[in-house]
Each structure stands twice: as structure tokens, then as C-alpha cells.
Write a structure and sequence with these properties.
Oligomer: single chain
Structural class: alpha+beta
Number of strands: 35
Helix content: 25-40%
Number of helices: 17
Strand content: 25-35%
Largest sheet: 5 strands, mixed, barrel
Length: about 775
């Protein structure tokens, strides 16, 4: 059978070419590697030389008119992205997925650049670099077929990460006196002292003192590296600018989506009966809130009374009521998506970045005195020895009898009530205290880890600068609330387990074997035996802490025991809480400010059939993903809060250069000593090269540095006198000079000639001759 010759078709029309390009890019949401002149000719069966020339001219006309664009010899319909796009990863969406924007885009012609949803493998191969916010990447882009209005129109897979986010620097812009250009003072401690030059053409509208984000352009052998200002974040001199730095560095969301605000504003106070469910009416029960005096939201209330049951002589009935956030924040709503993105509220000395809008956290879910509020409550029966006999959960309507501060409650406990606490003294406050005393007995028997770590509180002036640094006393009222909250959290975990309802636990692993062996080696140097490989209990640590209390080793042992501990986290599969010495533990008591608690509330509503707002069907895998996200958000918040305090205190001490302070060595590394000032808690660094006219060897086992010639030792926990040499408020960095002499090896608890590891033995062999010092390295601190 002979083939019939196909008739050569005429040249395709302009509309045919545009439709072909759009169709090829959109079909099945995929884009080919290349759409060029050759692909178009093949698609329309154009073979003759004359037709090819005509096609080339037609494509040139379309490009000249702006109907199509050429990207590295690839054609695309104007206003669309090429199949391989250079993009910057700019942010994360509400679900935590990475979003990118094309580097090249004609906003004047096509408006705002489209967003690209960046696909990241769930289980990347070991060693595979993963993109992050701020990275520049090469993406293979696919158009999303019929995208939702709120979803990006493109998705992309990373072909290559071209530059890491560290190339982008956040700093303070300082203009030159001449008015031409300026310099960037980085806020990163590691970059302290390393300024960047900005040309006048690259200022981006920045003014002196502005907090800016810059791209590092190039670095020459001579002079400062050059940079281009990418974004003006805010004015450094304005109030709350210090926390603004941490918010921007850690990419903490501060704006709620319009839909979330609309949902919050549309919410109305919960009625006693709603959606076919009737709450228990507990408004006559005199629950009270006890919080810091400056608290704006009050999400927990407590009450206690003697147990009148015959089977519990001397026992108590303790009630803990928690704001019913799950009634207002429903699964998969805009409010819920924003709350999950935040994970928790973030607390700075000058502001709070809340997990939920103010309408929810400071109004509808704040347990204000004298106002009806919906709550999830747990009623617990405690024996006279504090042992929990039973408990039950209830969805109630309550009315707080009073709003108390910790100081007010403590004064009442101590026999000095005021006008607010006096009417509550006999029926509310005294039973609360007696119930706490019983619960404390059970706590002592349980034996949780007893590390007393004082917290520093920054007191600000009206202009946002530091007035003073205080260490508030730890009151019995604090411990009372803490103990009852722990009991409520345990009860929530026990109830959900009994109902076989999946939940998110708060877990804390026992210390690793490596850390425990290191601790045992250290304790041996101060005469405390601690067998390696034994089954661990928090009480063993408490015994060690008790042995060194009020001795010269107290501070160093407390520091090392603290560093031995693992980090607590949220998990969907329980492994217990080592620090609290509890087999099961969940966060239930703060759904206003922690997403984990909101999940637990929803789980209780579902498991106990307590009306609307319950947890939807979720697999362990989905809960595990949520747990991982909120654990990461918690670490992000802690880092941001800590860095803000460091910057505020560095600014507070900046005008005290040359002043001397009492401090304690809080860290020992090969690079030098970290010290913490006793009065303010400020942290700073002493480079090892400044310690003396000899080589100092780092002894890891003893947490010390030791002089090679004199044997002078500086050890973790030692009390020292230091002089402030430099303060970098923007970076939150302080550099000190050590004024105190070190101790001899024997007085420091270190045996002369001690070298525990092969590495330390090698360091001893490599010790420099007497009189020579280690060469200084730039920017060590």
C-alpha cells in the first residue's frame, strides 16, 4: 500500500500560534522543556524553506508586539512564565509551603508577578540541599490547571539552588555625611563589625537608621563588600523596632488574612445552647484567674473546695477551666489556617505577636471577671496526699469571680488581703492553697526534675528603651497555678488515651547516652560517682543538684545538668515527659496562644461528644506533620524572643563601655569564654586570644580552658570580673575582657596532666612553648 503525500498546510494564524503555546504549557498542568520555532514548525508540519522564513517573521512580529516572549530561546505567551524560571523563594503560604517569585517580570505590562508554589520532597535523600526563604533557585515551572482564587497559578520543582539565603543580609542603614551612598551595619552576631557599602544608586529609598534587607553584590580584595538594598523593613528609631528585627529575621507572620479578620469580627459570644448542644451552667462557681499584672488575656481559671465525699477524707475537688477557643476557631477555617501558620503567640518585651486576632484572644476567649464565657473545664478529685483519684471533663458556661495577679494572690496567702481578695479569702483562696499543698506532696513523691532557673524580665520606658532588668521572685502563687495546669494537662492526655482518640502529646526525651557519659566523666572530677548506662530518673539529677547546693560547684553542675537535657517537642506518638517524670502529657491549658492546646480541645470535644468544633478525621501522619510544624514554630519563637532581649540589653549597656561587672562563665569553647552578667543576665564573649600571654587549651571533659605554661584554668560556672570592651546593639553582641585570674588546676578540680581523649592528648603534644600566644583571628567573637 503506497502512502499518499500529505498536502503542505498554509502558515498558521497568529491566534493558532498563541493557542498552541498556551495549550502546550497548560495541558495536564505540565510544561515541555522547550517551545521554540522548531517545535512550532513541527506541530504545524511546516517544512519548506519559504514557510519557515515566513514563520520566523511572524514570530518576530508577535515578539515585537509583546504577544509572546523569548526566554533563553524558549517562547511563551506574554504574561506567562517560561518552563524553566529563575526565582527567589520569598515566603511560606498558610500551609507552610514555600512560595517563590520570578526574578524577571514586567510589572508595568502584566501587573504583580505570579507566585510559584515550590514543591519540596517530603523525604529528601541524605545530603540533598533543601531550599528556604531567601534562596535563589532555578525552577521547572508548571502551570496549575484551574487554580483556586487563593492558590498560586504555578507550581515548581527545584532544579538547582543557585545561592543560599545567607547572601541576603538584614542590617541598619547608615548614610554617609556627604549624602552619597552609605553603609549597612549587619544585625547578625556573626557579622558584627563587618559593614557593607551601598552606592547611591542602590539605596532603594532608605533613610539613615532604617532597618533594611540587602543583597550582597560582590567583595573585592580592598575596601568593603558592596550591597544593594532590597527592602526597607522599618525605621530603626521607631518604637518596637528591636522586636521588628527578630520578627523579620525569623519570618514570623504579623498580619492576619482578611478572611480570618472577617471571621473574628463576625463571631458572637457563645450562647448556653448552640448547634444542638447545651453547655453545663457553672456561672455560680467562683472561679478566679491568677496571671501576671500586665496580662491582657486570661485563658485559665481555678477553683478548689474540700471534697465532701465519704471515700476521700481530707481531699479536695480542684477545677481548672480553660477558654473554649475551639467553639470559635473551627477546623480548616481561615482563623484555623492562620493559627496553624503561627503555631503559638510570640512574646517580646515591647509587643506580642498573637496566634489569634485580638477579637478572639483578648475579648471573646478572655475570661473576664463578671462576664459569661464558654470554657472547657476539668474537675479533679485529689486525696489528702495530692494523688488524683478521678477526673472528668465538661463544656461549660462560666463567670470569673475575680481577676487576680500573682502578687495579689500571694499577699492574700501571706495574710495581707486587699479589697479584691478579702471577700474570696475563706471560700476560694485558702482552699486553693490547701489543695496546692496536697498536690505538692504528690509532686515531691513523683520527683520531677528540679532545676530552678530564674527568668530575667526587661522593664521598658515609654520610648521603648530599657529602664531596668529585673528578676521577679518565684512565688508560691506561681507554683500553685503551674501545678494545677500540669494536673489538667495530664488528665487531658489520660482521657483521650482511654477513648482511643489520637492527639498531640507534649513529650520530653531522656538525655542521650553520649551526654550522660560526658556528665558522668565530669562529675567524677569533682568526686561524685555516677554510673554510666544506668536507667535514668529525674530524681537522680535532683540528688546530684542537692549534693552540690551551696558549694563552689553548684553553678557549674546546674549548667551542665541543664545542657544534658533533651529538648521538649510536640509528637503524635507518645514517649513520655522525662523532665516532669510523667508517662503521658499533653498541652490543654492555653489554646489562645498554643495551637497544640487547640488540637487537644478539639480531640476532647470529639471523644466526649461535647458539641460542635471537634477534631475532624485525622491520621497519625497528619497529626505528626502538625506536631512537627508547631515544634518548629516554638523554636522559632524562642530564638526570636531571646535575640530581642539580647539586643535590648546590648543597647542598654552600650553607654557603659569600660565599666566592670561581676559575671559567671556560662560557656567554654575553643574560641573563648561566654559570660553572663550577674546583675542583668546579659550574655557576652571573651576571645580566647585575649586571656593571657600563653596558649590556652580547651578541655572538653572539664568544661575549661587551661594555660599551657601556668596551668591557670577558667572553668564553666566560675565567678569572674569582666570589663566591657564593645557593644553592638544591632547584633545584640557584647565583648568583654577578663580581669580575674584563673584558678590552679587542683583548685579548679582538674588533675595536672589530665588528658581524657586522644584529641586532648594530641593538643597537649602540640602545645606551644612558654611565652608565645595563639594567633588572633578576626571576628572571633
Amino acid at each position: 500500500m503506497t502512502k499518499t503525500k500529505t498536502k503542505q498546510p498554509s502558515l498558521p494564524s497568529r491566534d493558532d500560534i498563541l493557542a498552541f503555546i498556551a495549550r502546550e504549557r497548560d495541558i495536564n498542568g505540565r510544561s515541555p522543556a522547550k517551545i521554540g520555532k522548531r517545535e512550532i514548525a513541527r506541530a504545524f508540519n511546516i517544512k519548506g524553506g519559504g514557510d519557515r522564513i515566513a514563520l520566523k517573521e511572524l514570530l518576530a512580529e508577535l515578539k515585537h508586539e509583546g504577544a509572546i516572549e523569548a526566554h533563553r530561546k524558549r517562547l511563551a505567551k506574554a504574561g506567562t512564565l517560561p518552563s524553566v524560571t529563575l526565582a527567589d523563594v520569598t515566603s511560606r503560604d498558610r500551609d507552610g509551603e514555600l512560595l517563590a517569585a520570578p526574578v524577571e517580570w514586567d510589572e508595568a505590562s502584566f501587573g504583580e508577578a505570579p507566585k510559584i508554589l515550590v514543591h519540596v520532597p517530603r523525604k529528601p535523600r541524605p545530603g540533598t540541599p533543601m531550599p528556604g526563604v531567601g534562596d535563589r533557585v532555578l525552577l521547572r515551572v508548571e502551570a496549575v490547571r484551574d487554580p483556586d482564587k487563593d492558590e498560586p497559578p504555578y507550581s515548581g520543582r527545584v532544579v538547582k539552588i543557585l545561592s543560599r539565603s545567607k547572601a541576603r543580609v538584614l542590617g541598619i542603614f547608615r548614610s554617609e555625611p556627604s549624602g552619597h551612598g552609605g553603609r549597612i551595619v549587619p544585625i547578625d552576631k556573626k557579622l558584627a563589625g563587618r559593614e557593607l557599602a551601598v552606592a547611591e544608586a542602590d539605596l532603594g529609598g532608605a533613610k539613615d537608621g532604617d532597618l533594611v534587607s540587602v543583597d550582597v553584590m560582590r567583595q573585592t580584595r580592598f575596601g568593603l563588600p558592596s550591597a544593594r538594598i532590597r527592602e526597607v523593613v522599618g525605621a530603626r528609631t521607631t518604637e518596637k523596632a528591636v522586636s521588628l528585627i527578630a520578627i523579620h529575621v525569623h519570618d514570623i507572620p504579623t498580619e492576619f488574612r482578611p478572611q480570618a479578620i472577617a471571621e473574628a469580627e463576625a463571631a458572637r459570644p457563645a450562647p448556653l445552647q448552640a448547634e444542638g448542644f447545651v453547655r453545663e451552667d457553672w456561672r455560680a462557681l467562683p472561679l478566679v484567674t491568677i496571671d501576671p499584672p500586665d496580662a491582657k488575656d486570661h485563658d485559665d481559671a481555678v477553683h478548689a473546695e474540700p471534697d465532701k465525699a465519704a471515700d476521700n477524707p481530707g481531699g479536695f475537688v480542684v477545677t481548672v477551666a480553660i477558654a473554649d477557643v475551639s467553639f470559635y476557631v473551627r477546623p480548616y477555617s481561615a482563623l484555623d489556617r492562620d493559627a496553624l501558620e503561627r503555631g503559638n503567640s510570640v512574646y517580646f518585651p515591647d509587643r506580642v505577636v498573637p496566634m489569634l486576632p485580638e477579637r478572639i484572644c483578648n475579648d471573646l476567649c478572655s475570661l473576664r471577671a463578671g462576664e459569661d464565657r464558654p470554657a472547657m473545664a476539668v474537675r479533679m478529685r485529689l486525696s489528702a496526699q495530692g494523688r488524683k483519684i478521678e477526673h472528668s471533663f465538661h463544656r461549660v458556661m462560666m463567670r470569673s469571680a475575680a481577676k487576680l495577679s500573682y502578687q495579689q494572690a500571694q499577699a492574700a496567702f501571706d495574710g495581707d488581703p486587699d479589697d479584691t481578695t478579702r471577700p474570696l479569702l475563706n471560700d476560694v483562696l485558702r482552699p486553693l492553697r490547701r489543695a496546692y499543698e496536697a498536690a505538692a506532696k504528690a509532686r515531691d513523691i513523683r520527683g520531677p526534675l528540679d532545676l530552678d532557673l530564674p527568668e530575667r524580665k526587661i522593664i521598658l520606658k515609654e520610648d521603648g528603651t530599657v529602664d531596668r532588668v529585673a528578676t521577679p521572685p518565684r512565688l508560691e502563687a506561681h507554683r500553685l497555678i503551674e501545678e494545677f495546669m500540669i494536673a489538667a494537662n495530664v488528665a487531658a492526655a489520660e482521657t483521650l488515651e482511654a477513648k482511643r482518640q489520637a492527639l498531640i502529646y507534649r513529650a520530653h526525651d531522656e538525655p542521650s547516652l553520649e551526654k550522660m557519659n560526658a556528665l558522668a566523666e565530669f562529675l567524677a572530677t569533682i568526686g561524685i560517682k555516677f554510673a554510666k548506662g544506668q536507667v535514668l530518673r529525674p530524681a537522680q539529677f535532683n540528688t546530684i543538684l542537692a549534693r552540690v547546693k551551696e558549694t563552689e560547684h553548684e553553678n557549674v553542675v546546674n549548667e551542665i545538668v541543664l545542657r544534658t537535657q533533651a529538648q521538649a517537642e510536640y509528637v503524635s506518638e507518645n514517649y513520655g515527659h522525662f523532665g516532669l517524670n510523667l508517662k503521658r502529657y499533653a498541652h490543654f491549658t492555653s489554646p489562645i496562644r498554643r495551637y497544640a492546646d487547640l488540637i487537644v480541645h478539639r480531640a476532647l470535644v470529639r471523644a466526649l461528644d461535647l458539641g460542635p468544633g471537634g477534631l475532624p478525621n485525622m491520621s497519625l501522619g497528619e497529626l505528626a506533620e502538625i506536631a512537627a510544624r508547631i515544634s518548629a514554630a516554638e523554636r522559632r519563637a524562642m530564638a526570636a524572643e531571646r535575640e530581642t532581649v539580647d539586643r535590648l540589653i546590648a543597647g542598654y549597656l552600650a553607654d557603659q563601655i569600660g565599666a566592670t561587672f561581676e559575671a559567671r562563665i556560662s560557656g567554654v569553647t575553643r574560641a573563648g569564654l561566654f559570660v553572663r552578667l550577674l546583675e542583668t543576665g546579659a550574655d557576652g564573649f571573651i576571645p580566647i586570644s585575649t586571656l593571657g600571654n600563653e596558649y590556652f587549651r580547651f578541655d572538653e571533659a572539664h568544661h575549661a580552658v587551661i594555660g599551657s605554661r601556668s596551668g591557670e584554668a577558667h572553668r564553666l560556672g566560675d565567678r569572674v570580673e569582666v570589663r566591657l570592651l564593645e557593644a553592638a546593639p544591632v547584633a545584640g553582641a557584647l565583648r568583654f575582657e577578663l580581669l580575674s585570674d584563673g584558678r590552679t588546676l587542683r583548685n579548679a578540680g582538674i588533675r595536672p596532666g589530665y588528658a581524657k581523649s586522644k584529641r586532648q592528648k594530641k593538643e597537649r603534644r602540640d602545645t606551644k612553648p612558654a611565652g608565645k600566644t595563639r594567633r588572633k583571628t578576626s571576628h572571633e567573637w
